[in-house]
Structures are given as C-alpha cells and as structure tokens.
Amino acid sequence: MNPGLGLITFHRALNYGAVLQTYALYSVLTRLGGNVTVLDYRNPVLEERHKPLCVSTCRKWTDLVRLLFLSRNHNHKYRKFRRFLMDNVNLSGPLCSLRDLERVSDDYAAFITGSDQVWNGNITGWDPAYFLVFTDVDKRNSYAASFGFAEIPEGRSEEYRRLLCGFKHMSVREQQAATVIQGLIGKRPEVVLDPTLLLRADEWEEISIRPKRKRYILVYGFAGENYLRFASGLARKTGLRIVCIGNPLFPKPCFAYERDAGPEEFLGLFRDASYIVTNSFHGVAFAINFNVPFFLEFLPEASGVNARLENIVDLFGLSGRLISRGEIANQELSMDFSLINSTLESERQKSFRFLRMLVSQLG
Question: Can you tell me the distance from the alpha carbon of 337 to that of 12, in angstroms, rounded to the nearest whole number?
Fold first, then answer.
C-alpha cells in the first residue's frame, strides 16, 4: 500500500455537499490505491456554525427560539452526519490547531486540500490550514479547490499569492478560479470535477436510502423566493407535491419537509425525484448525476459565490434551465441528458488522470 495521504476539507460541516464530496474523494483515492486518511481538523469558525443545538450554546433570544422549535430535528440530523463519516471514511484523531497539524505532518507522504470552498476565507475565518502551510511545499496538493467567488476580496491579493505559491500540484473546481490563480502566480492550474461527479449514479445508489415518497418535486437550496415560487408553479402545472429538504422555522404552506435527512436519505430523495428545483451547486451536481430534470437559480449577486454555479452551467450547457424572476428561459419540462452525460464522462476521465498522477507519485 502507498504511504499515507492526508485529506483536509470541510468534512465536519452540517452540509450535504461538503460531507458527500469528502466521501467521494476519499473513495476514489482509496480505489486508486491511496492509503487515505481524512484529517479530523476542527476549524473554529466551522465548528461554531455547525454544532448541535443545546441550552449552553444559546446567546440571544433567537437561539432559544431555534432550540425550542428546531433542535430535535437539527440534532438528529447532526448525529446522522457524524455517523455517516464514522462508518464510511478513515478519520484521524481530532486536530484542533495548526500546531496539531504540524505535529502529524511527518506521518503522511502528501496532503490534498479540497474540494469545496476551502480557499474562501469568508467561510474559514482566513484559516491558512486549508493551504497546507503546516507541511513542506513538496507535500502540498489540491484537488478541485474552490474560492466560491470570481475575484479576490479587496486587500487579500498578496496574502493569496503567498499561500498559493507553495503547491506541488494544483487543481481547482472552476475556470474562474484558474483564471484568478494564473493572474496571481503566473501558472494556470488544471480544472477538474467536483468529487461528487466522479462517482456514477449506481455508486451513489449503493449507499442511498430510498424515500417512501413517490412522484414529487424536490426543492433543495438556500434562502430565496424566486425558485420557491417557481417550484409552486411547477407543482400546479404537473400536479405533483413539493418536498423540501430543510428545517425552517417558518415552513411554506403546502410544502412537505424532510427536516432531519442524513446524507444517505438526501441521495435517495434526489434519486427518486420527478423534478428538482435548486439554487445549490451540489443540488445541480446530483441532479445531473441521477439524470433528473431540474431547474436552477443563481444566488443573489450580493452573496458573491455564483462562480461555482456559473461554471457548471457553462460546462454542461444548462442556460436553458435557469430560473429568472420565477420563470425559466426554456419552458420544456423534460431534459435530454445524452450530451450532458457525454461531457460528464469526458470530464471524469480528465479528473481521474490528475488523481492517478497524484497517487502514483506516492509509490
């Protein structure tokens, strides 16, 4: 077996895309012969954001409201996420600081940071651990790392330039990220697929839990009214019920909610949906993988993180599925996935070549 390969990412986030991309990258690297460990690194900002709800964590009256009305489902979901990781990936012991990471650096032949928005400092609190500063330059690699944004935040260019210069092999998830990096350090990294798209639908089905619900429109995403309004119109047009993945304090009338779905149940809900309506990157990714007709909306421009959605729209030619002001450019409900699947397979092969190269250099 190859020497150890350490993977650092957002594995502890209570977020389906973050956890499933961790599982996917771990699985693919292991299949390619890597002796992979997911570093159980605990970024303080992410730990605060993705934690169980309990009395001791309440700081203001809104926390108490969430505790009273949302904690049961939230904490049940939290336990499902933790169990999924324990059952499906090889985790290191807890690592809570750069010093902890430096201490284990010699235990691994190489490290990979990614995928997900590991280079978005607004998410991590500008944590340099995700740039692998705790180890030697010749051990630093990235796979499908993402900024989430198309431009470096004001005043951060020199910091990013310094951090990005120290990689042996680098790949990113979006063309926009490759352009940004080329402008900073004069080298253009390879653009590869998000790990969730490396696994085929039948591989995801093996770990999915099929829902009891039949014939439904699945809604999954972040705050926004246009795509929810569009989903309601689609329900009227098709006669299908809307099922929404989420645990809101103020639920929408006539929506059915999956409030505590774990990663396996999330996969099943995507697999069996009749249509999917989303403004999430990973919502689009799983709709593509399962070949379920879908509609997507960009997030508000103020969020600054549409680069990932723009990239996947451009890559797969999905502009006709975009929702704008509650409507879509293409009124066709069905989708022809033949060209999408062909593009996906071609991009998979390119991404696998990059990963095989990484693993082969550990032998």
Answer: 33
